[in-house]
Amino acid sequence: MANKRDLKKELNFITNELYSECLFIKFYEKEVDVQQADALLGKIAQTQEEFASRINHTDGKENPKLVKKYYEKLIADLDKTIGEIIDELEQLRNPAKQKS
């Protein structure tokens, strides 16, 4: 398992990349819904804040098994959330391919 510092660095790197991609799409792609892009930027910032807080405040600090389970769930939740954001970025970039 990675330590807290590495998890925070990875979280910051990923969210910064997503934020940059969203800004690029917002300003350089044609026919982009600016309100949807702004909402997505807010979601990315909220995700970064939420997961940074979860990394800092570990449940069950006394029990290593609980700590391991906590971080496994945190990483799974982060992967799921990042996947959702990437899907939203793709929809923002290609509005014709909206999910049905």
Report on this structure:
With 100 residues, the protein is mainly α. The chain has one domain. It has 3 helices and no strands. It has helices at 4-28, 34-56, 64-93. Helix 1 runs antiparallel to helix 2 and helix 1 packs parallel to helix 3 (64-93). The longest helix has 30 residues, at 64-93. The protein is elongated.
Topology (SSEs and partners):
Layout: H1 4-28, H2 34-56, H3 64-93
Helix pairs in contact: 1-2, 1-3, 2-3
The largest pleated sheet is described as: none
Find the count of extended strands (DSSP E, 2+ residues): 0
Report the order of strands and helices: HHH
Q: Tally the helices.
A: 3
Quickly describe the structure:
The protein has three helices and no strands. It has 100 residues and is an all-alpha fold.
